[in-house]
Amino acid sequence: MRRHRSLSGLIRHKAAVVSHMRSQGTVLLPADGPHASRLQQEVQRHNPGRILSFGLMEGADARVIHVTGVENGQRVKARILGETTDYVVPMLEVHAPAMSAGVLLAAKVLGYSLKDCSELYSSARNYQTSGKLYRIRKHSMTFHLYDQTHRGYFEGFLSTCQLAAQLPPDMTRRKIAVLTELYNLDDNVGHRYDLNRAARLLKKAGLDRIYTTHRFAEHAGILPDGVTWVAIEKLDQLTATLRHTLQDGDFLLLHGVWKANLSTITEQLLQWSEGYECLY
User: Fold this and answer.
1) Which own/partner contact pairs does 187-192 have at CB distance under 8 Å and 24+ positions apart?
2) What is the pLDDT of residue 5?
3) pTM of the model
4) What is the structure's pLDDT at 231?
5) How far apart are CA 261 and CA 278, in angstroms?
6) CA–CA gap between residue 206 and residue 161 (Å, rounded)
7) What phi and psi, each to the nearest 5 degrees, are found at residue 13?
């Protein structure tokens, strides 16, 4: 927010990126979220071309119809510009099905076969900033690690909590999280985030243990009652604690602002392991 100064400024600047497009161009926009209509209106001010939408909302040009969980992913049924398709999204995030509809919408607009692209989607890989999932082995222990350390802003925190809440039981003996502050405090001075919503989602995540570091203490009020909470400042000590704490079947979630450098914990745990697989 320091750069854009306000939510209105952020929406205005995002919409301005289409101002160079020709009038016969096509803009793809998310249909979901509280600010989707404002973004669409702002885009229309900058460009008279065609606007198509994707997401979960009724009326979206590419709409997710149904989602079921599968191993390390989700099976999605979607309708893309009137054509129905069924495919696997190899990611666990709540927003992944809606985003996949946007990708397939782009492919169809560009003239590619929806059937072929849907079949290929099971081999898709997440951007590093969108979260990485690892299966890690050490001795007779196997656990999962979800690394959300490159998306350390508020929506990323909410996404991590939503993912934790819907994890399949066969992946989660215990759910353990490592958290920093929910967003970059220096870049968002004066901006008010919905911490009540953050508290609700953190409670629904059903975490068994939470480790915190960096400046999380400024958000300690969102912690649910009864959860085991341990604050550790030094990352080396935090990694050592995790090595001692982790058990077979655990699911470890890391979310933090980039300044906290939590990615070093992932790197150290991967080096400590006796083998790992990047699931996405």
Assistant:
1) 187/1, 187/2, 187/3, 188/1, 188/2, 189/2, 190/1, 191/1
2) 64
3) 0.85
4) 97
5) 20
6) 9
7) -70, -35
CB-neighbour burial class of residue 170 (10 A; exposed 0-12, middle 13-18, buried 19+)? exposed
Quote the pLDDT of residue 139.
94
DSSP assignment of the chain, as one string? -TTT-SHHHHHHHHHGGGTTS-TT-EEEEE--STTHHHHHHHHHHH--SEEEEEESSTT-SEEEEEEEEETTEEEEEEEETTEEEEEEE----TTHHHHHHHHHHHHHHTT--HHHHHHHGGG----GGG-EEEEEEETTEEEEEEEETT--SHHHHHHHHHHHHT--GGG-SSEEEEE--SS-TTTTTT----HHHHHHHHHHTT-SEEEE-TTGGGGGGGPPTT-EEEE---HHHHHHHHHHH--TT-EEEEE--GGG-THHHHHHHHHHSSEEEE--
Q: Give 10-residue mean pLDDT values along the chain (280 residues).
A: 67 80 85 88 83 96 96 95 98 94 97 98 84 95 94 86 92 95 83 92 97 96 96 97 97 94 96 96
Residues 6+ apart with CB under 8 A from 8: none
Q: ∠ CA(93), CA(94), CA(98), 5° rounding?
A: 105
- Sequence letter at residue 66: H
